[in-house]
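Hi R.,

As promised on Friday, here is the backbone we talked about, encoded as structure tokens. Could you run it through your design pipeline when you get a chance and send me back a sequence?
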């Protein structure tokens, strides 16, 4: 009974104020895209993968990684094929252009950075639900919050509607299974066209509905269940402190790394402080989950 109740509990990130979660994701996404130091990429990728496993469960996280694998392979291999900078030559292509170690490592770093951003976006989509987005952006930028929430739900909504339309097409005898490639392409285009038309109609209906309710008008009040508590203030202070340390380290060049013409970066002993701050910043949700698990086990042992 206790294990089932523990499994049904929300993750620690869900019990934070949406503004704290939103600011954290803005910071971690910005750092993941801007910091190309190899250690920073490994830290961001490892923490994002761990948080994906915690929030999305291992099977769902593995599916997302499998879907992103072809894109990452292309990103890692396309750079050495077109970028021939670098001083360490590993070989030559049939065209006579050199294959350099620096271009290969830069392609791997870019692929790792892209995977980290995709995983953080998956965590963002799981944590920042529509009501939490409206709580953060509803008053200051109501139109932006509406568009952002609609964009986040487009992918799962498209998948659900695509399955419904494909099933309806099979029920009326318009399935292309077992037919030629051209027939399958025509069937796929027809299903896609229906899905896009349906989605656009629903978007127009949503816009008209929100407009008729006075959404975004000056003076319109909104209700939210979320309130800033002492825990939110403490976490916000820790978040801003760690983010400030990382930003200062990056501005001071302590997290800089050059791939061309040769691999060159700041010595580890002078950048260790900024790297530790970045590690703690990325690990913040994982530490929250670990603390919640410890408190839960302690409470069970006292019963």
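Update: got your reply. Pasting your designed sequence below so it's all in one thread:
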């Amino acid at each position: 009974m206790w294990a089932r109740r523990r499994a049904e509990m929300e993750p620690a990130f869900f019990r934070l104020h949406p503004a704290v979660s939103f600011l954290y994701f803005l910071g971690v996404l910005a750092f993941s895209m801007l910091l190309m130091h190899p250690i920073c990429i490994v830290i961001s990728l490892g923490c994002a993968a761990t948080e994906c496993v915690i929030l999305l469960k291992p099977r769902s996280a593995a599916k997302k990684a499998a879907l992103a694998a072809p894109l990452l392979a292309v990103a890692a291999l396309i750079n050495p094929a077109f970028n021939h900078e670098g001083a360490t030559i590993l070989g030559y292509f049939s065209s006579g252009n050199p294959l350099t170690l620096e271009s290969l490592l830069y392609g791997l770093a870019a692929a790792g950075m892209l995977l980290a951003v995709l995983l953080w976006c998956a965590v963002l989509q799981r944590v920042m639900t529509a009501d939490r987005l409206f709580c953060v952006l509803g008053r200051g930028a109501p139109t932006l919050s509406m568009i952002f929430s609609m964009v986040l739900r487009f992918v799962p909504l498209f998948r659900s509607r695509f399955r419904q339309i494909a099933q309806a097409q099979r029920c009326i005898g318009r399935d292309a299974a077992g037919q030629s490639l051209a027939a399958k392409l025509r069937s796929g285009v027809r299903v896609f066209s229906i899905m896009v038309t349906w989605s656009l109609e629903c978007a127009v209906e949503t816009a008209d509905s929100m407009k008729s309710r006075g959404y975004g008008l000056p003076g319109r009040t909104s209700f939210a269940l979320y309130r800033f508590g002492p825990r939110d203030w403490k976490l916000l202070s820790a978040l801003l402190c760690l983010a400030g340390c990382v930003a200062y380290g990056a501005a001071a060049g302590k997290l800089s790394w050059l791939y061309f013409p040769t691999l060159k970066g700041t010595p580890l002993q002078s950048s260790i402080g900024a790297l530790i701050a970045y590690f703690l910043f990325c690990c913040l949700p994982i530490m929250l989950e670990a603390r919640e698990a410890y408190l839960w086990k302690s409470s069970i042992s006292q019963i």
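One thing I noticed while checking it: The longest strand covers residues 89-92.

Thanks again,
M.
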